[in-house]
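Issue: ligand-bound run for MU-OXO-diiron - logging full I/O for the record.

Environment: standard queue, default settings, no custom constraints.

Inputs:
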Amino acid sequence: MGMYMTQRKDIPILASALEHLLNGCRTTGYAPYVELVKTNLKRRIKMAVREIKPNIYSVGAIDWDRRLFDELIPLPDGTTYNAYLIKGSEKITLVDTVDPTKENELVNNLKKLGINNIDYVVANHAEQDHSGAIPKILELYPNAKVLTNPRCKDMLVDLLLVAAGKFITVNDGESISLGDKTLEFIYAPWVHWPETMLTYLKEDKILFPCDFLGSHLATSDLFVSDEAKVYESAKRYYAEIMMPFRTNIKKHLEKIKNLEIEMIAPSHGPLYNRPEFILNAYKDWISDEVKNEVIIPYISMHGSTRRMVDYFVEALIKRNIAAKPFNLTKTDIGELAMALVDAATIVIASPTVLAGPHPSVVYAVFLANALRPKTKFASVIGSYGWGGKMLEQITGMLTNLKVEIIAPLVVKGYPKEGDLNSLDRLADEIHKKHKEQNIIR
Ligand code: FEO
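Outputs:
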């Protein structure tokens, strides 16, 4: 049986059929499922091709339901895989593609635009959420050549088995004419992979930065309409994949600072028609400045560590220091990553289990260490029943962090008066360190 692809013209018919079905299901338990299908159908309606400037179109896909990336990163708001079609007077170019799960949507969008030929497919990044549909595009548009840098070419050959003869490699700073439009390629390795680059459309002053400056946010808004929401999503995205490469990200911002940019069209999330919004946010995140905040990821099994955390949070607040406790049994790990972008201090709190830290604490510390935040101070608090190496194991995991360790506090059993006084002293020490950093007003 051949696969049937829903066309835009079919949607009103399907919606009507579903309405009938829904009426028939009112008295059964199936109505909620029909409503769900209707909701998803409405979402499909919003995934139209949209012109972002004359002869430049958004042709990607929205992934409303994706909740995990790399089987690791939570996506509470879904994501988009943006791709862009540029119709030059002589050449037609597709900038990036989409995740392979959404390739039919990209193909349908190109059909809706009546695209019979593509000359170039720009691959800014080899990761499959942007490159995964390249083989399909090359199959449907056999004249197309992939424009990318040599490193990305090698990765696409390895990852997607694209034939080496399908590529045209470009140098850093090289331009390619599409007739009345010109593409310029800007190498930007280590946005989070080594082959990443940016593409700048000179005449229209649009930057296509792929992952860089993007946000994991499924939205039908073409451009940012709610800056506060997009700020959160973009910060989360920066924290989860780009923060370990802060030094490289700094260089990329420096490299594009003299470009005239009217619009930024990333490959995740809405487009920016006020580029300074996201550029300023990035400048803040990559700066060496830290904020007067203490992040406290914690687990408590029987209440001892919990009592310490509660007391410590209050002690920090009394000293005019922002405290952000994260109960690791409930926290989305992305929230913790986001908090680590700015915080001056991390205090890890764990009970002792099987002679070491709680495994959920181990996971959080491993991740924090891998993300290499600019955090300046660290400490450990927690409890034990009869012994163990919880403290040594946690501090031994912080190898990537350039932090000064402030004297930890591990107590036997439930914290007593003297232990609480020690927590006050820890809060005093953190206050002193933050004062020295000039981050306490
Ligand atoms: Fe959106 Fe690194 O892929």
